[in-house]
Write a structure and sequence with these properties.
The protein is mostly helical. Helix content is about 65%, strand content about 0%. The chain contains 22 helices and two strands. The protein has helices at about 1-15, 20-35, 40-45, 55-65, 70-80, 85-95, 100-110, 115-130, 135-140, 155-170, 180-190, 200-210, 215-230, 250-265, 270-280, 295-300, 305-320, 330-345, 350-355, 370-380, 385-405, 410-415, and strands at about 285-290, 320. A two-stranded parallel sheet has the order 1-2. The longest helix has 18 residues, at about 385-405. About 35% of the residues are buried.
Amino acid sequence: MVDLLKKELELKLGQNIESRGDAELLAHAVQETIDNEISYNTIRRFFGVSSKVKPNKKTLDILSKFIGFKNYVHFTQTYSFRGRKNLSKNIYKTLYNEDKEEIVSLVKKIKQTPEDFVSFIIILIRELIYNKKYDILNDIFNQKEMAFNTFSYSDILLIGNSTGLLLRKTPMDKNYILLKNYNFVIGVYSSFVDYSNLNGYYGKWAKIVLKNRVSEDMTIFSSAILQLKKFLNQKKFQYTFNEQAYSKELHPILCSRLLSLSYLNSPGQKTEDNLTNYIKVHSKKQQIYIDYLYELFITAIYSKNIHLMADLIKIVETKRISTFTYQKVHLNMYYLMCLFYYQSINDKAELKKYLKLINIDFFRYSYEDFTGLLFQIFYYHQARNKNVKQFHRNEYLKLVEELNYPYFNENFLLEYHNK
């Protein structure tokens, strides 16, 4: 079955895997299609380009998912030895005819089969975006098969982040029909919050969604994004959300963003009382979803709010915090905040602990440049060698220029830990 998997991978890629370049191409295609990272060296070993070793379960699952199956077990159980039509071939054939009804029909058909619908829909979305078929894409997102409540939250994140990453590279060319589509707005726009482009396409999207009034929660969401944009551009903003951070109807991460904005708006306020009430409202059976703290972690870092950091650490250490698979990214953001806190109070033992726990590569693509900038600040203040310090200063300034947020400048780096 491993040999059959290799054959299907090469068919999907359209070429044999015979060199390092081929392996890198497949690794990139896997990441772009299903938002899973796999090392090109792992692929080289899998195909025997370098030393041949037995692949582990994780490798087999990722590669099986790339060709349209849920995992390797699903591949072995459902693969037809007589010849199974590849999902991509089905898609390309249908797209070639440019028949909207035929494409929508294929979506409905695949949703009812044992196929991995999420991988299928990501491949389809990718091809429609590349071919700028936004009207067809809009029709697909209008189908009941794409309704938010028909997917797990992990699947929504997978679809949203894969699609968001593509649209970051392939802008919609002033065709914003999708920003009126509730399934697209809730599934893609709100799950891929592009911190790198608040002054670019994503900030423009937020204005359009706010104007379109797609739904009440997306109106609040967009307004919050635009207020954060004002803060990063050093413009005054008026906090208008009152008690909405305590709402049980809004998404947990949105609640955390709303509470974060209140701290940005009034930086001198005491954090402990607010957080105590916030945790009390959102806790269930003495447990709090880490989603409710996610935006608070990163806000505490870039606002240099040492008191908020300390209070958040106390909460995480004394409360039961949920950490489902998708929430491991959230936990990683917490580790980043801990690095800044313990660096600030010069606790070397705790610093060492969290340096072992954090995974630098384990941040969502939408936060990639933003967290990269924060890492350069941390490394700059860790460095004891003049040349190393200069290197991280230069890397920081490159990211400052790319992000183009006036809030971040050289003084922000140099004076980060100044009282």
